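During the reporting period the student researcher (J.K.) took over the structure-prediction task from the postdoctoral fellow and processed the backlog of single-chain submissions. One of the processed entries is reproduced below for the supervisory committee.
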Amino acid sequence: MSDDDADPATGAFLAHRNLLFTVAYEVLGSAADAEDVLQETWLQWVRADQGQVRDPRAFLVRITTRQALNRLRAVKRRREAYVGPWLPEPLLTAPDVAEDVELAESVSMALMLVLETLSPTERAVFVLREVFDIDYDEIAAAVDKSPAAVRQIAHRARRHVEARRPRQVVSSNEGQAALESFRRAVETGDPQALLEVLAPEVVLMSDGGGIKHAALRPVAGAERVARMFAGGLGRLHATLTTEPTVVNGSPALLVRLDGEIDGVMAISVEGGRITGLYYVRNPEKLSHVTSATPLTLR
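J.K. obtained the following structure tokens:
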């Protein structure tokens, strides 16, 4: 059904659906949970008195934020008991996301992991204010706080994130070059080439969710990471292939074993070298890596 064929309530929801999904995903870090939040938002929206809604966009963002906050508070407890590192659910994204520097950074694996260190309310406030530039009064209505309290939360969250976020924005070309060097080193099994593309302080995080084998703790340091790759590749009893892709607005690799998707390897880059490797193997998180998910800040 097109927006033109829809009734006004459905048309308004569809017009803002990509924005609502992006809000929910950035608050939750999970596409599956974001989809559930949108379903709950839709149910509340169709029950609302449409004649009393002056700004459908603001109203829908408010409902989405409240639903996402409720869900985040619930899943936070589950994530604390997660087997090994918890990584955000990767999303295959269209080229326009990578071209929008602000959007690409906001959904990058590196920043999403920083957002995981905020409290649920801090995360929601940070996302709405810093990413979507929503005014304090609207945010206050969404998180059930006073505007003055929201300003304080926003300041605290901004300071926390700034101290931990990547220090520089990397061009798409620089990221792709580092990824291609990494890909060649892995596929040829060249340990020296691998060490040359890895920053000395590189950290590898792998997420198997207790379903697939993965390191239970982050692996830090270029030599340790290189040894782990060398050891893992040496034990493989399957044909490994990698395919360049773009997830969460950044260059990544789709990894296959004997032709079947094994996982997604996302990277973060600084100074032309890889500082972060994020390998998502948990099959429950790989449903959005073969078709692009529309994201938007507007």
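The committee noted the following: The radius of gyration is 20 Å.
J.K. will present the remaining backlog at the next meeting.
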